[in-house]
Amino acid sequence: MAAHLKKRVYEEFSKVVQIPHEETPAKKLRLSKPSKSAALHIDLCKATNSTDALQYLLQFARKPVEAESVEGVVRILLEHYYKETDNSVRLKIASLLGLLSKTQGFSPDCIVDDAINTLSNEKSHQVLAQLLDTLLVIGTQLPESPALRLRLVEVAYKHLSDTYFGVRNKCLQLLGCLGMVDAPVGKENEGPGTSLGGLRDVQSIISDYFGDQDPRVRTAALKAMLQLHERGMKIHQIIYDQACRLLTDDYEQVRSAAVQMVWVLSQLYPESIVPIPSSNEEIRLVDDAFGKISHMVSDGSWMVRVQAAKTLGSMLQVSPHFLEQTLDKKLMSDLRRKRTAHERAKELFASGEFSSGRKWADDAPKEKLDTNTVNLIASGACGAFVHGLEDEMFEVRIAAVEALCHLARSSPSFAEKCLDFLVDMFNDEIEEVRLQSIHVLREISTHITLREDQLDTVLAVLEDSSRDIREALHELLCYTNVSTKECIQLALLELLKNLNKYPTDRNSVWKCLKFLGSRHPTLVLPLVPELLSTHPYFDTPEPDMDDPAYIAVLVLVFNAAKSCPTMPALFSDHTFRHYAYLRDSLSHLVPPLRLPGRKQVYGLDSVDSGPGSGSVESAQLFLQQSLNRVSTIQNLEASGAQDLLDLTIRDLQRLGELQTELAGAADFCATYLRCQLLLMKALQEKLWNMAVPLCLKQNVTATAAAQQILEETYKLEFLYSGLESRQVATIHHVRLQAKALQLVLTSVHTSHCERFLQDVESFQRLFLTELPHLQDSFVDKLLELMPRLSSCKPVELVKILQTTLRQSGLLQLRLPEQIHRATATIIEPTGESDNPLRFTSGLVVALDIDATLEHVQDPQNTVKVQVLYPDGQSHVIHPKPGDFRKPGPHRHRLITQVYLSHTAWTEPSQIEVRLLLAYSSSSTSLTSPSKLGWSESLESLPAAEAAVEGTIPFSKAVKVFIMPKPARR
Amino acid sequence: MPEIKVTPLGAGQDVGRSCILVSIGGKNIMLDCGMHMGYNDDRRFPDFSYITQNGRLTDFLDCVIISHFHLDHCGALPYMSEMVGYDGPIYMTHPTKAICPILLEDFRKITVDKKGETNFFTSQMIKDCMKKVIPLNLHQTVQVDDELEIKAYYAGHVLGAAMVHIKVGSESVVYTGDYNMTPDRHLGAAWIDKCRPDILISESTYATTIRDSKRCRERDFLKKVHESIERGGKVLIPVFALGRAQELCILLETFWERMNLKAPIYFSTGLTEKANHYYKLFITWTNQKIRKTFVQRNMFEFKHIKAFDRSYADNPGPMVVFATPGMLHAGQSLQIFKKWAGNEKNMVIMPGYCVQGTIGHKILNGQRKLEMEGRATLDVKLQVEYMSFSAHADAKGIMQLIRMAEPRNMLLVHGEAVKMEFLKGKIEQEFSIDCYMPANGETTTVTTNPSVPVDISLNLLKREMALGGPLPDPKKPRTMHGTLIMKENSLKLVSSEQALKELGLNEHQLRFTCHVQLQDPHSDADTLHRIYTHLKSVLKGYTIQHLPDGTVIVESIVIKVSSSTEDSNTKVLLLSWSYQVQIGPHSTLKKVIVT
Description:
- The complex is a heterodimer of chains A (969) and B (595).
- With 969 residues, chain A is of the alpha+beta class.
- Among the domains of chain A are: 270-352 and 376-447, Leucine-rich Repeat Variant (Alpha Horseshoe), CATH 1.25.10; 448-595, Leucine-rich Repeat Variant (Alpha Horseshoe), CATH 1.25.10; 617-807; 822-923 and 946-965, Immunoglobulins (Immunoglobulin-like, Sandwich), CATH 2.60.40.10.
- Chain A contains 40 helices and 19 strands.
- In chain A, strands 1, 11, 13, 14, 17, 18 and 19 form a seven-stranded mixed sheet that branches.
- In chain A, helix 7 (125-141) packs parallel to helix 9, helix 12 (239-246) runs antiparallel to helix 13 and helix 34 runs antiparallel to helix 35 (725-745).
- Chain A starts with a helix and ends with a strand.
- Chain B is an alpha/beta fold.
- In chain B, 30% of the residues lie in helices and 24% in strands.
- Chain B has a seven-stranded mixed sheet. In chain B, strands 7-8-9-10-11-20-21 form a seven-stranded mixed sheet, covered by helices on one side. Chain B has a six-stranded parallel sheet with strand order 14-13-15-12-16-19, sandwiched between helices.
- In chain B, helix 2 crosses helix 4 (123-131) and helix 3 packs antiparallel against helix 4.
- Chain B is elongated, with a radius of gyration of 37 Å.
- Chain B starts with a strand and ends with a helix.
- Classes of the chains: A alpha+beta (969), B alpha/beta (595).
């Protein structure tokens, strides 16, 4: 029962894959190509009424057509089109024409004439619109044919006066996509360039339709104009006034497009001068546009508001005077001026009074306002962001926050001003908005220094239950500048509180304090005695070294001490001891310090802190030299060569440890060389001269070596990122050698030989471009002998392989520019706990896992969690895609839960948890170099290379004590 | 000229007792039917005798519309419908219909059972009154009768608050009720489309105020509560049962959730549970966040907020208690206040305005010693905080609404006269529209300029469209020829041929002729030919034809030549043109020919 229950539980909570896979034979599919056109023709002729015909067309549309038969199909469709009386069928045909002309490899210029001809006879507006759409598709397919363009544009111009909005829409779209500014369009009878009177350029034609009676056409006209702009044509400034008028249109889509239009113009002509209506003043166009768009932030439709708020963010040329107005909101109460809460807070802070408004009349209105000066409808930019940040829809609020960010990054004074508003957003009801505003504040934090009261509100968020919010805030604090030592104290206090409440935040909090300390050494200095609770006369008890809070304080102090040489004088004895301990155990958080009278520590540290940029170069040089040295291996005696390899591998490994930048490359080389070493050892046994099957002992070590080489090659291929095809070829080459070795060692069977030959072939196919670099190698020789190999008997093959293997030399490894090894560190669980996780057997227990992954591509699909039970059972769990976060480039964070279960144990025991990197050889891009057409892709797949799937453990295993108890009956 | 008349019976230059009469297109509508909280005599209800001295109101009113459930907007409803007498339709939104009777009943209980008044409406009357109510949905157009239609918009003031758009023919009025343009924790912002009404009747409670951002106030509130809880103190928040209370609950609930706090929050029971129930039901009327997340969890199903029991007040440890009533003048909130006042760790937060004379008002003004009944004094040691959470539009909000709706006239109600004066000036200055602010019983008349719909025959329209050049500039007026027929209350524009046919008349053609005498020795035919060639050289761009029957036709002008009987050298030129040419663009042509 328990077992059954357990099974069910697994099914419900997690996907568990047992590692041994049974191979299922793949089914092969072959697609036949029936003649499309013929079938369609027959179908259409069969159709008695329009419904039938429509049905056939619909069916036809579901299947793709090959490029070569498109033209035939088009002819048939057109033929039917002329005969057809029903509008809907004609419409479908027209849309099919458009669809067909998109077919790859088909050039639609041959059907242009037909399509244009059909236009002139068409009566139905809907069909007309569809035909124009088809022309649009054709036009966009043939971008480099000016004559065709001109023709299409003329067609569009002719139909612009249609009464149906759809036709006008499509015409405008055509003009937008194909029209040229420099090539004027005339009426049809006049032709381009013949008469001056009828000539108008595309822009003025389109702008005529800004005043169309149908809102959809107005939108299309604006969109067409934007399209022109996108195609790199310069929009005239005259349009600005018209576009501004459309900002007050009754329809939201028009307003939204108009906002874009105004923005485009403001970017094109920022400095030109426009008059302010009803006064004789003039302002810059970009300021005027900014004011108008700011106005749209309080529009009735939220789509427009989002659009407007987003757009504001990209208007960086606006004058600071206007920019600051967006945050302006004059408050009044009963016609008396009132100060905003922000101003009050600032004043309180300035006056030094430490209390916030606890009085009722605290916000009592002050001076009386002159009624004439109060501007209720703020003209221009007034308070746009104040509105945007208070909007009902969170989309608008996010857009406003982002816009603030963009503007603030380019203007420090504005950044200072918008600080209060951003801090207010930390209290938004939607987490996304809160998170976004924290991120934004971090981005602009280089410009600002937080006041104490502001810091106070920022820190209040540290108690948020959402981990993302807290970590974002820690990140923010890392970059924040604060003004006083009280701020530091406050921040530390709140962070410790946070640590107390959410112990899992430990690492993040420490890191935060590290930056806080190194940023403000002078502010920390006066706090040190208090922080370390030292006393001038009395010895204070030594704090507990395992207390995360104490470590947090020490991290702050030590990082501040780094750039403040007077600080260590304030330390007590145990502080120095703790320093030595922490420097060792948490070296990433505690910097090396120059402590007086501690030469030894100093000396050791200087080695670590010594290497600068210069040493990276020298390390690189060393790496290269080692590789070069290895390449001379051919000339050496067998034993000498092995020694050299051994040495080099050791060197490289040490190099990787010392120089983190080169760790990936060094590791890669070392692993590669190890493969070579193994191969060499296996081959250079003296026993090889005997008949192979006779020596069993030799057989065992060599087989093991072959197997190990195979595994290493998979690691080489999938664990490192930044590989070029050259390196991949080299890796595959080693793998091929290992396979050959296996073949030589195992019993000779025809099927094995065949598989090997297939491997060779696929290698040749995949790395055709790399073959010239592989001269004189194993493969090179094999390929020379290939004709002979494929015909010879297995025994003969083995012999050839044996000699080739032994003759072939070592392949020179060339290093790529950037090479990184995928690594994973499990932060949680730590594996230190002695308290077993108790649960009832047969039921499940959830284990929280927190890990950072570096240089893993596509972790959602490749990273798995493996749980190894003491009885040898192992489970692999796929984490949900949502469990991965991306805090930085090449970095991922996995926060997930795995469910454990087991039958009852008598006493607690350890299970191992580790992360696996799953790979599959078919998933690499190299096996299918380019995506072919859908019809051929199945056939072209290299059938020979069956996908090899497997997993590589790439994190240290963490041990967790668990204790399944028998259920109480 | 048609007129729209607006007469406030309450809320004219006054806050409280909202009741506005509108007559539009021959229909009489009552907007809101509220009572004044400040009076206990006849002045508390609107003066219905203004409508009719005796008898029932049914004959004089076409419908009654209630904007939301606050008593100053619906308190007089049972009195009007049952005691004065009104049987017509009463419109209100679904949430209003659900919550309104609870409040009316509560109000009745207090006045009748506690204060012992007689001659007041009974429970049965409330029920009967509610039976006459027809519920409205947002943005649903309801036909009251053939001509009168109403449509509700979201107002955001309290749950179910609505603005109404009233339309008769092409005349329309929008009444806002109370509304709020800034969203809060449980309600969205008011919204209306560009309906361009003839009059926009707007509340103006905060006509002279521009408020600070809501966020600051919320943050302050939460911070104060949080600090007090951390100190281990107890927080008392006196509230009225509906509206703000729910907002504060949501605010605290989400904060507790976010910050992972454990201290209990209590809500004194009674009215509130019923009300919360309705809030749970009418999720569609709340704001974006609550609407979007209610599938996972209904925000009004509070996780941290529990029902309060009297004994909990003595429990040790921190807690937050919401208790009614809001001004600390009686009931549970006062009891708890007395218990907690002595400890300076505790805190009371007044979330709204307090009337003079209440304890709330006294402590807000800093009084530290209170005299209770029976000569006992109470030392107030706990902290007193004031947080204003009001859900009316401020001056900016009102202007924003005007910009949204684009009315032709503006009418302010529900505000103080002095403040209205300021806003009135601003509105007239900014939008250059007329703004009115009638006092109670004073009638404002607005003349409208309604458009008269005319049917036009499609053929005529198409013909004129074909004549009139390319399609753009549709907003320019264009002249067209046609005949207007007025027949049995309907107007029709048809082509003249059809008009003749319909009326059974014959077509008459009007031609103008004139004779011009010329001295010309040539023969008639020659003269004509000479005229033809001359005209051809002078009038470029006109079609000039020389017909074989001895006439020259320039466009539609006919020219004939005949010799005079007396003198063969004197030729008489006969010009003839039609009526259209007389007034049309061809007159210049005529001039050329004549000279």
